[in-house]
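Hi support team,

I submitted a single chain yesterday and got back a structure, but I'm not sure I'm reading the token output correctly. Could someone confirm the output below corresponds to the sequence I sent? I've pasted both exactly as they appear in my results page.

Thanks,
R.
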Amino acid sequence: MSTELHRRRRRAPRRRGAAPHWLGQLPYLIVLCGVAGGLTLCALDYFRKGSGLMAAAVLFGALARLVLPPSQVGMLETRKKWLDVTTMATFAVAIAVVAWVVPPHR
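Hi R., thanks for writing in. Yes, this is the structure output for that exact sequence:
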């Protein structure tokens, strides 16, 4: 393959109204920031609030994976849709249950 042909293939024109590439990573970044914020709250001795924030962030990831098309979910798409959604929803519920069951710090 010639170099010129390779360059033309790489710079394919974007469709009119197409979203930028980084926008597809936005749901993943929101989940990542939510989990990081929850871990920070847990480290600052706000275990229930931090765990709640982490559970909400993971649940948001599950909903984003369920609703958005594959081109817009970014790195949240790792397996089949039903498996991704089930796994993240299960983790969100498990984190929320742990936050609820653990007795408050006195």
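A quick pointer for reading it: The radius of gyration is 19 Å. Let us know if anything else looks off.

Best,
Support desk
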